[in-house]
Protein: PEP-CTERM protein-sorting domain-containing protein
Amino acid sequence: MKKTLIIIASLALGAAASQAAVLCTTTFNRTGTSLDTVTVNTVSDAGLSTSSSISSDNFSKNTSGNDLLANGTIPASVFSPNANVGNAQNNTWSVSFTFTNDGSQDMLISSIDLSMIGFTGAGAAQNAGGGVANNNYVGGADGNLNKPVNITLGMSGQDDQTLAYNGATSTNTSTGSWDGVRTGSYEYGDVLLKAGESMTLTVTASKNEAYGNGCFIGLTGIQINGEVVPEPATASLGLLGLAALMMRRRRL
Structure:
């Protein structure tokens, strides 16, 4: 009996620990060229929240002003800094979001997905003309059809991680596609976010050395993945119920 319970408990705990879920998704709605025209929308069944706006304290770029691009056909869902990232001036931009665990239970953060899209200064989806060869970029394409931009994700208390995204939204050298969103995953070793506590995520766009002509790139979404840590009493009751069910089946 004891051996059976130990095996059941081990299997149940192992399965629970391996099942990462979506803790929250964050998207944007931009109606103009200033930060106060951006609405931040976060959906979370787990209880994660963030501010519904972006303040000037949480955004910077090395070109003058905190303006965004809203011209051309750039969708309102793109947070679109007006900075040609990685050109001869080595332009960069950075934006921070503070997420708070408003739930009653702790969370484990296992990964964070960032969705990015490239565009031109004229407000068109970025084409592949004049690109470079693929070197394992997020959304990379075969041939000289890539315009890589480094996207670094910083999390409070953790080491920064950098992925290179292909800013070209299609393999067409003349025109791009707004369907060419690139999503990269930043992996973490189950970072604990306790109930009532907050963490800050900082997204920074900078030059990739393989491509020197620059590319405008914007953020379209953040997805935080992980799990809610069960309360001890809830976990114990679940295991006892599973054990009872297994023993009943053995008797039958």
Observations:
- The domain at 20-230 is CATH 2.60.120 (Jelly Rolls).
- The chain has one domain: 20-230.
- The longest strand covers residues 107-119.
- The helical segments are 2-18, 232-251.
